[in-house]
Amino acid sequence: MEKTQNNRAWFLVLPVLVLVAFSAVIPLMTVVNYSVNDTFGNNEFFWAGLDWFDEAVHSDRIHGALLRQAMFSVIILAIEVPLGIFVALNMPKKGFWSSFCLVVMALPLLIPFNVVGTIWQIFGRGDIGLLGHTLAAIGIDYNYTSDPFDAWATVVVMDVWHWTSLVALLAYAGLQSIPQAYYQAARIDQASRWAVFRYIELPKMKGVLLIAVLLRFMDSFMIYTEPFVVTGGGPGNSTTFLSIDLVKMAVGQFDLGPAAAFSIMYFLVILLVSWVFYTVMTNLDRQEAK
Amino acid sequence: MAQITLKNLAHSYLPNPKGEQDYALKEMDHVWQDGGAYALLGSSGCGKTTLLNIISGLLRPSHGRVLFGDRDVTDAATAERNIAQVFQFPVVYDTMTVRDNLAFPLRNRGQDAAYIKRRVDQIAKMIGMEAMLSRKAQGLTADAKQKISLGRGMVREDVNAILFDEPLTVIDPHMKWELRTQLKQLHREFGHTMIYVTHDQTEALTFADKVVVMYDGRVVQLGTPEELFETPAHTFVGYFIGSPGMNFLDARVSGTHAMLVSGAGVDLGDDHGTPSGRVQIGIRPEHAVLTEGQGLPVTIRRVEDVGRHRILRAELEGQPFNIVQPEGQPVPALPRVAFVPGKINVYADDWRVAPQGRAA
Predict the structure, then answer these.
(1) Whole-model pTM above 0.80?
(2) CATH number, domain at B339?
């Protein structure tokens, strides 16, 4: 068949280009602009070169936030991924209860972030919160506003509560796509429950788990609203993650230059880590095919 | 190894089956002799796979019992039954190598490493995959994967039976022949009970000593290939076995004589009494002879030359009628067809009426 060549078709892409330009490219360039300039007000800017980047790289404050951020992401991934798989494995596969579970599981995902934060903020309070009050009543000293460990525990449990569903739903979708014949063959081959998981379910879930890990990594690495509402980054700086610190710097202290340099590096870190994740996991895939 | 007995077995996929039509398997009693090579033949959807899954325990029958030897295994799990089954479409463990795939059932039974290695090598040789043992199973072609599935089915020596569910569907024709021969040899060597499901009659007849023909959830005939050919117990068997299948003509039968709809008479050779219901006579195309003088007038519509013989697509009494004519014989100008006496079967409501005074 003859293909019609008409370059005017490119005009059809124009609206998207304009939208992307205004929503992403131009704001991002503004940030780039701030990151290489300094100002003393009055909208007057001076060229600062890479000074802000240099400062950010050597800042103890940012190092601390980065370390806490990395710890947070590692902890919640280490909990949510296995827990999500476990939940998915134990969900009913069909019938009324399967739909029921799906709806219940989806509920936390539908709650706005600041509402999630507020829920846990109140839930954990010692005076009126069900959790805080109950813990106090059974003699556990729990106070997320003054104890760093309690604050961390609250923030981590909150994230697990909020996002494990996502991993579980993705894993469940992966499990549902496994043909019945695999389970039948495993029964014929007298495979143990563990072997079925290790050699059938896990390999077939790998694709969706990769997506789950990527999504959860990116989201958790950018987390802001929920810990901000619950702990405000405290006590002290103990739950100040990168986003919280960034907002403090940019909006609280109005240090636009350092904040811009910080946010560009933040963006690059997420991009880099996601890319590494993705490449490593897809390469594993390819090696196995050989 | 054990004899497998199905006792009053029936299965319905519905929770509350109302009538017979709700049953995927109608009630049956059946014994699979220890060490037999059976083919389970029937068209798609007749309950072959259901029956197989009940024997292997993947499915619990809604009625009746399954016995291995004297032991009732109706409620026993698949693993407990120690049975092998190969499915229609390949199932391989993607992340394992071919070797690990083949060794998997043995490892699950905790066999020792030296034995596993020996046995895996033996099976790999049989399915022609020695060169690929260290490869990952992922990314292999469908027929390579199916060979692995077959190998996994055959790797255990102590299984009670090996069930094959149309295993050669995805294999190319040359390899099909090869593998079927291997299966047959394996059967001779180890004497496993083998049940081979297929809808391909050539496959069934070359593989099995005994062929079980199923139709609409029922076993309609169990017999040797010769019995199925010469004396089909049901019109379905007559139609399904043979290429082309048996010809059927409506008739009225009394004693040794049959009268067709047009009033023409046919000599049956044997006394069939006076069956009632819908009565038909069945004649194999191989037992119909073209003549010039005697017999019934027939119209030839088409001639198909298939090598050693010719298939004549004809019309008799306004109905299609097939004749197999040996090579080198002419088609007469005014053809008539005669039937070999004693080779005519009589059916009442689709079931064969045995001639009187002669064993069925």
Answers:
(1) no
(2) 2.40.50.140
